[in-house]
Amino acid sequence: MGEHVRVAVIGAGFGGLGAAVRLRREGITDFTILERADSVGGTWRDNSYPGCACDVPSHLYSFSFAPNPDWPRTFSGQPHIRAYLERVADTFGLRPHIRLRHEVQSMRWDAERLHWEIETSGGALTADVVVSATGPLSEPRLPEVPGLAGFPGKVFHTARWDHDYDLRGKRVAVVGTGASAIQIVPAIAPDVQRLTLFQRTPPWVMPRTDRAITAAERWLHRQLPFTRAARRGLLWGIRELQVSAFTKHPGRLGLIESLAKANIARSIKDPELAAKLTPSYRIGCKRILLSSDYYPALARPHVDLVASGLKEVRGSVLVAADGTEAEADAIVFGTGFHVTDMPIADRVVGAEGRTLADHWKDGMQALRGATAAGFPNWMTIIGPNTGLGNSSMILMIESQLNYMADYLRQLDVLGGRAALAARPSAVGRWNRQVQARMERTVWSTGGCTSWYLDAQGRNTTVWPGTTGEFRRLTQTVDMAEYEVLRARGGTRGHTPDRAGAAAAGEAAV
Question: What percent of the chain stands above pLDDT 70?
């Protein structure tokens, strides 16, 4: 493996591009971004289904160091978010560092040389540090449905939308009622002959207060940046104030639940349908979804709701667990992603010769959501227990970038060939504290089974606190939580590269 870089970043979505910008702002240009696809964008590249949009306000769902005064709507659609990420790559000079169509096939820690050996579909390299930013919403989850292989029509997942297949005039079955499905159903309902929605569990849905951002607002944000910052700050502050209801006092969510029930009543006049759409669990236990056209779409005469999961497929007939049958020409699976069993974990082999998947077989855990015991100089962005139930993940990503930056500074201070290995005791202590706090949250007490939970029923996905608290806890690396590893014989110093400092300023994209 001839080529060596100081840092290898895996993935070119929000996490990977953010890591790359932060590296340049730290004066580090000896890095590469390994991306399996043919363009940047991550989940906002992969998810291009009809109606795809973000449920976090645009001015909060963007990097603080790359504000966009020209967001067209209060809640942006997928094309605008993807275009924003393309501009980030251009504005901060990241293109020379990005290697497209380089899917990581394996990463193995070399304990003698204290570096990572990385095999990709485009070649091999080594790196002192790996920053894994593959994201939890990158690998679609398809259920094993008996008879599905014999279905004569079209089958695809929402994150792998087939734009060459025309749904117009077709009988379409949508399986799942998560965030993707509630956007797809209203988008395709006007064009299909019949739409059948298979619902295992109804979601709580609140109205989506989306609107076009006026030209005057955009002008103001360009000319007076403090107005843009104030808008972002207000959006952030409101969500911070909501956190305690989710994490400490779920009983306070009753008012929001009443508003969600009123949202059903406004659009659904059929009492039987309304009953099927009303969840039996506390609001917030599963992710609260935003839509103002989902319920009206379900009220259409040619749209059928099957309040049961898909059990089997018999030719072109889909059979639900309650026996309901429906014929379909196409099946769209909105069945989520591998979140608590990320496939990248099978490709990472640590200091003990074990894969990260094996290390996490009893549940994912990482120190401050970033580093795992037994995997020196490896960290993840959007790691275990860094997800959010009500705010912007970009806030959490930026906090982890702070941690990454200080991690690299500590390696610089150590000098020579050195590595930092998270102490098992520190990882265990952090995880116990997080899980203890999780016990009183709505995600644990709300009476639902969500994708936040792993196979053991533990919530290894969500952060049980505010984004402000997480930022404080990840501002710097506590060296007491790490063991310093030194290579035997020879030195290979890390000379800080300051060539990227020109990219360190705030950029409007």
Answer: 96
